[in-house]
Every structure is written in C-alpha cells, then in structure tokens.
Amino acid sequence: MVLTDDISFEVNPLPQESWVSAPRQYQHGQRRGLSVPGAAVVGDDGAVVEVNCKNGSPAKYIHFNIKLWEKKGQPLSASQGDVLNFLDDHVPAMIEHLRCAVG
Predict the structure, then answer these.
(1) b or e along 19-43 (b: 16 or more beta carbons within 10 Å of the residue's beta carbon)?
(2) Are 90 and 5 in contact (CB under 8 A)?
(3) Are 6 and 65 in contact (CB under 8 A)?
(4) Which residue(s) pair with 60 in the sheet?
(5) What does the pLDDT look like over 64-102, one tens digit per residue?
(6) Considering Cα of 13, then 35, then 89, then 46, what sign does the dihedral take?
(7) pLDDT per residue as tens digits for the range 30-59
(8) Are the C-beta atoms of residues 25 and 67 closer than 8 Å to each other?
C-alpha cells in the first residue's frame, strides 16, 4: 500500500458544494470530526481535510488530500478507522511543522 498526501495552501476555504460531493470520492466516505479544529471527509481509501490557520496575512487554509493506493487487483486493506487514526496523528504533526495556529 502507498499513501500520498498532497498539501496545498489556499486563501479561501473549499466551497460548500465541494463538501457535499466529497464523500462520493472515497469508498465509504463521510464527514468526520478530527482531533484538531477543521473539516474532514474520510473514507477507506483516503480523505480530504481542511484546517484554517489563523496566523499569517491573509489567514490561510491548509488542505490535505490523502490517498491510499493498493496494487492493482488487490483488495483494499485499510478501513475508514485506519485512515482516521492516521489523520489524528498526521494532521496535528503537520500543523505544528508548518507553524499553523488553528482555532
């Protein structure tokens, strides 16, 4: 299994319609809470997370686009719970690394 994390910085949050369609992008995708303030859709095969950094001018949003890749023809070996556990460790660590003040 390979995990990728595409991190992007934006001035504006994701539009509401993106959050409505995001669960369909992931196997068993649904809106979930995280251990940090922000928004997330988590599935068995990945997640999208948005956190608002209050520091900086203008304040910025960090988007995490997590994707799990299996060998072709292999069944998915991760679950939504596995992805959520990863996010609860990874996102706070990256927020600290990027010196983002969330709130």
Answers:
(1) beebbebbeebeebebebebbbbbb
(2) yes
(3) yes
(4) 53
(5) 999 988 777 666 677 888 899 999 999 999 999 988 888
(6) negative
(7) 999 888 989 999 999 999 999 998 887 677
(8) no
Q: What is the largest CA-CA distance in the chain?
A: 47
Q: Which helix (H) or strand (E) holds 41?
A: strand 39-43
Q: Tokens for 91?
A: 């996102």
For 22, the token pair is 């995001």
Contact 49, 37 (CB under 8 A): no
pLDDT for residue 75: 65
Q: How many CB atoms lie within 10 A of CB 64?
A: 21
Q: What pTM was computed for the model? A: 0.86
What element of type H or E holds 8?
Answer: strand 2-10
Helix (H) or strand (E) holding 96: helix 80-97
